[in-house]
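#lab-general

N.A. 3:47 PM
ok so I finally got the sequence cleaned up, no stray characters, all 129 residues accounted for. can someone with queue access submit it? mine expired

B.Y. 3:52 PM
send it over

N.A. 3:53 PM
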Amino acid sequence: VEGVVEAYRVCLPQVKLYGPTNFSPIINHVARFAQEALQQKTASQYFVLLIITDGVITDMDQTRGAIVAASRLPMSIIIVGVGKADFTDMEILDGDDGRLKSITGEPAVRDIVQFVPFRKFQNVSEKPV
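B.Y. 4:20 PM
back already:
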């Protein structure tokens, strides 16, 4: 994790962040790889999608549907929220307060999303092992 944080700090000045913040296209893209892996029936691949975002999600309905569909696949999604934006929607996607449902009411098979607000951890000092 420390290496990911350091890489983020180094890259941030070189990256232009922009909106809108649409998650469903990338979730669906990774889900296609997970679907292909599932069809091989070897259980040898698992996909973890890391999304680092500084904004409020703009395709919530489509994202909920993409996550519900992906919940059947060998994949998980980690969303890291950076900055001071309102991340209420990310908490909803996380599914800790109840099973995520698509806009049609279809529930996720399992909780595959973990949301982490970076601001809660950015000043935490490392504890000795």
